[in-house]
């Protein structure tokens, strides 16, 4: 088989603005927003597929599981709502592509599935995280545990943290925002060498901004799907990133010397707030979803929706729509209720009054949603 290396950049600063053409878009003139209302039958085919064998495997879901999955297809569903496009700079108008239904996901020969020898997701932190070592260590543990609940059935492990210097990657100061940036492609080369044999994938995370090549402003992340790796930055999830007073802006024009990483010592990293935790959980699970071969969702509100900017990313929910959930379930094989219970446990666990308690305030809406889903899965009337 020819080895196909798909490397793609996630979320970048230059958009191509193209208009959407589809009969399924309804224009809400008053708000100039577009709600993507797919006909129920189209959503049903996207979930079940047209192939006899795939329709048969759908029947392996329990009755309450099917009730939950199909609830999202109905107009006015209280659990899964249609996607609303707020402007031409949103992902879907800027990146027109065919939506991926369950069947096209399933038949993609290049998608990756975990196997018994390769079922661990490795997280590699690069550079410092948070204001203090204790908080940083705790924060990365929370992220790891969240990923393990989200990708229920897989093991998620942290690799020992590395400094920027040990990656030997190139770096620069961004001309517009005056913050430090690391070369994403070189970080991927570094991760490739660190990838353990039993890895389903390895993901590098950093609080330092990334750039893919000299001519680009920045990227939130970059991934190689066929090689099962990705690198993502949470730097721009700091609420103050775009403010002139952002603490990561270098005050004076420093002359950087490639190979001299001392500039990263004591470099600013964002404080770990509930919002930052939520945004990083969302980004990390979205990006790992791509490594499974799940493309950007255009069906319903879903964590796999593409996003071009922070406001759009904040609009996305934390979890998967029924169609993307079936994709993930077919790759891993969990019971849907077990996965939701694990996520609920993550929110409720450790969010107490201890000093470094998990800041889960921003997850309250998600918690209520999980309870609603579980009520359906446990056969109770909601
Ligand atoms: Zn994406
Ligand atoms: Zn989806």
From TrEMBL:
<comment type="similarity">
    <text>Belongs to the peptidase M54 family.</text>
</comment>
<dbReference type="Pfam" id="PF07998">
    <property type="entry name" value="Peptidase_M54"/>
</dbReference>
<keyword id="KW-0645">Protease</keyword>
<dbReference type="GO" id="GO:0006508">
    <property type="term" value="P:proteolysis"/>
</dbReference>
<keyword id="KW-0378">Hydrolase</keyword>
<comment type="function">
    <text>Probable zinc metalloprotease.</text>
</comment>
<dbReference type="InterPro" id="IPR024079">
    <property type="entry name" value="MetalloPept_cat_dom_sf"/>
</dbReference>
<protein>
    <recommendedName>
        <fullName>Archaemetzincin-2</fullName>
    </recommendedName>
</protein>
<keyword id="KW-0482">Metalloprotease</keyword>
<dbReference type="GO" id="GO:0008237">
    <property type="term" value="F:metallopeptidase activity"/>
</dbReference>
<dbReference type="GO" id="GO:0046872">
    <property type="term" value="F:metal ion binding"/>
</dbReference>
<keyword id="KW-0479">Metal-binding</keyword>
<dbReference type="InterPro" id="IPR052009">
    <property type="entry name" value="Archaemetzincin"/>
</dbReference>
<keyword id="KW-0862">Zinc</keyword>
<dbReference type="InterPro" id="IPR012962">
    <property type="entry name" value="Pept_M54_archaemetzincn"/>
</dbReference>
């Amino acid at each position: 088989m020819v080895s196909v290396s798909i490397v793609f950049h996630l979320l970048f600063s230059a958009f191509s603005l193209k208009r959407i053409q589809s009969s399924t878009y309804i224009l809400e003139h008053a708000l100039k927003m577009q709600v993507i209302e797919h006909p129920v039958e189209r959503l049903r085919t996207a979930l079940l597929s047209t192939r006899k064998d795939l329709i048969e495997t759908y029947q392996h879901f329990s009755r309450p599981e099917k009730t939950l999955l199909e609830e999202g297809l109905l107009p006015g569903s209280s659990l899964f709502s249609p996607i609303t496009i707020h402007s031409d700079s949103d992902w879907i108008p800027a990146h027109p592509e065919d939506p991926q239904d369950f069947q096209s996901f399933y038949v993609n020969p290049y998608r990756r599935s975990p196997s018994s020898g390769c079922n661990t997701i490795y997280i590699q932190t690069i550079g410092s995280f948070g204001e203090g070592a204790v908080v940083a260590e705790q924060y990365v543990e929370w992220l790891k545990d969240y990923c393990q609940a989200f990708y229920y059935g897989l093991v998620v492990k942290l690799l020992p943290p590395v400094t920027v210097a040990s990656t030997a990657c190139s770096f620069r100061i961004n001309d517009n925002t005056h913050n430090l940036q690391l070369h994403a492609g070189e970080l991927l080369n570094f991760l490739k060498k660190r990838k353990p044999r039993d890895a389903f994938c390895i993901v590098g995370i950093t609080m330092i901004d990334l750039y893919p090549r000299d001519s680009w402003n920045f990227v939130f992340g970059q991934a190689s799907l066929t090689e099962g790796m990705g690198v993502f930055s949470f730097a721009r999830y700091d609420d103050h990133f775009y403010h002139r007073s952002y603490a990561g802006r270098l005050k004076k024009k420093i002359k950087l010397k490639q190979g001299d990483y001392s500039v990263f010592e004591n470099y600013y990293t964002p404080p770990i707030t509930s919002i930052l935790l939520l945004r990083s959980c969302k980004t990390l699970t979205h990006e790992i979803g791509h490594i499974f071969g799940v493309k950007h969702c255009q069906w319903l509100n879903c964590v796999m929706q593409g996003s071009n900017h922070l406001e759009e990313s904040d609009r996305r929910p934390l979890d998967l729509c029924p169609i993307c959930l079936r994709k993930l379930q077919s790759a891993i094989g969990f019971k849907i209720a077990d996965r939701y219970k694990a996520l609920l446990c993550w929110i409720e666990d450790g969010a107490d009054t201890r000093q470094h308690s998990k800041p889960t305030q921003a997850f309250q809406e998600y918690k209520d949603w999980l309870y609603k889903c579980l009520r359906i899965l446990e056969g109770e009337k909601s």
